[in-house]
Amino acid sequence: MATLYVRDLSEEVLTELKIRAARNKQSLQAYARALLEQEAATPSLEDVLARIGERATARLSTGDVLDDIRDGRRHE
């Protein structure tokens, strides 16, 4: 396991994190770790947009759209 140190955290932020951790019946370390793990598991907006672009490109490149229209086929 790696160790992460956070410097220059304001007292206000630290106090709020401690309060939230206590509300969740967690230590500050466990609470912060859970937040970081959740953030790392969430795809970035850039990743989501890239996947959407890949799907749209793949859907269009799987067949000639004009041929599909001429043949009366619909894409759902």
Overview in brief:
The protein is an all-alpha fold and 76 residues long. It is built from four helices and no strands.
Report on this model:
The protein is 66% helix and 0% strand. The protein is an all-alpha fold and 76 residues long. Helix 1 packs across helix 2. The longest helix has 17 residues.
Primary descriptors:
mainly alpha, 76 residues, rod-shaped
The strand count comes to 0
How many helices?
4
What radius of gyration results from the CA coordinates?
24 Å
pLDDT averaged residue by residue: 85
N-to-C CA distance: 46 Å
Strand content: under 5%
Quaternary structure annotation: single chain
Structural class: mainly alpha
Helical fraction: 55-70%
Instruction: Provide the succession of SSEs.
Output: HHHH
Q: Judging from the principal axes of the Cα atoms, what is the shape? A: rod-shaped
| Largest sheet geometry | none
Topology (SSEs and partners):
Blueprint: H1 11-23, H2 28-41, H3 45-61, H4 65-70
Helix pairs in contact: 1-2
